[in-house]
Amino acid sequence: MKEYNMIVIGAGPAGIAAAIEANKNGLENILIVERDEYIGGILPQCIHNGFGLEYFDEELTGPEYAYEFIKKLKETNIEVLTETMVLDVDKGKVITALNKEDGVIRVKGKTIVLAMGCRERTRENIQIPGDRPSGILSAGTAQRYTNIEGYMPGEEVVILGSGDIGLIMARRMKLEGADVKAVLEIMPYSSGLVRNKVQCLDDFDIPLKLQHTITRIEGEERLERVQVAQVDKDFNVIKGSREWVTCDTLLLSVGLIPENELTKAMDLDLHPVTGGAFVNENRETNIEGVFAAGNVLHVHDLVDWVSEEAEIAGKAAADYINDNLTKRKKIIKITPDENVTYSVPHKLEYEFGEENFIKIFMRVTKPMENVKVTFNYKDENIVSFPKKIVMPGEMVTANLPTALIEDHMDEIKVSIVKKVGESNGKK
């Protein structure tokens, strides 16, 4: 059985970035395993622009963003296996995989990086009653049909959910000549990036109906119509609000789920909110030498941050192999508090090296304006950062300075609260 210093599962933006960063930090003998026929993950089908603004400081399409990393990958001796499905990963870091040329293969990694990405929720996940005709697709599937396969999903389109893929596909269908009847969102706010709502819906006069959902689907062989209803704050259908909308296509953009079947099989500790693994600041799981990064850990809205997070995992894997990591005497928990749904990383486990700060990623519970992100130890404010606006659909980040983290601390709570005057903290 061949052994590698690092095996990366998934050749999307997270997997490629992690492998390149590990190699950049002196790690050789790296293998990337990808189940698809090409590398780059979802990016090749994302032909719209808006990628790379954070990472490359320029606006790129999805294929262009992927190409920048693929170019770097080709400059290394990193081995890549495509069309290879990973069947199992055990706690000893032995991977069992399958492809059409080699059959069943088994390889062992001194470190493993989980970078399997995420998948879309389906009709079954949200349990819409009614018939089961053709014409009901996830927004990502429709995107692949349109941008890679060259097929038009339909002519009269309704989109359920205002996630970023749904917003982007509303514009894409409109540009291809479809009649996009509406984008429906059960929440009282859009769940996608504000810029996507403006550029994809407002600029193309596509209506967004907030606090609306679909209560029934009808159609024999092909979708014929959907029943749309308004809901109250408790998501109950408002009496008298039901109406039928004729359409031949329904696109679902109702959330993403981390691809964590392999993670579950390894019996890793999983976070109840994100669905991904519990990790420390190095994106290391509860099994030493096993890391997770990107959308398999928690769903991102910017691929730039996927790459950034994966580089943390890649460097940490190289440091792990080279024995450059020293554990802290006391683990410090990072706990989400007021108006924070979750935060990543979940704990600080290693002594700080040259890092001046730990970047904390988080999601908020509701839209808010004129707020501050606060880090507190017990009742003492460590540091605060102002934010003009925060939305559940947009990741919030804040840099926690390592100089302000003291050895006696055992838990730091992160909150997002209304800004009243100036912070009384140490900032």
Can you describe what's shown?
The chain has 427 residues and is α/β, with parallel strands linked by helices. The chain has helices spanning 13-24, 62-74, 123-126, 139-149, 164-175, 194-201, 261-265, 303-321, and strands at residues 2-9, 30-33, 79-81, 85-89, 94-99, 103-114, 118-120, 136-138, 156-160, 179-185, 208-210, 212-219, 223-230, 243-246, 249-252, 256-258, 290-292, 327-336, 340-344, 347-350, 357-364, 368-377, 380-390, 396-401, 411-418. The protein folds into three domains: 1-120 and 256-325, FAD/NAD(P)-binding domain (3-Layer(bba) Sandwich), CATH 3.50.50.60; 122-254, FAD/NAD(P)-binding domain, CATH 3.50.50.60; 327-427, Immunoglobulin-like, CATH 2.60.40. The protein is 20% helix and 35% strand. The strands form six sheets. Strands 1, 2, 3, 4, 5, 6 and 17 form a seven-stranded mixed β-sheet that branches. A five-stranded parallel β-sheet has the order 8-15-9-10-11. Helix 5 links the parallel strand 9 and strand 10 (179-185). The longest helix is centred in the last third of the chain and has 19 residues, at 303-321. The radius of gyration is 23 Å and the shape is globular. Residues 422-427 have low confidence and may be disordered.
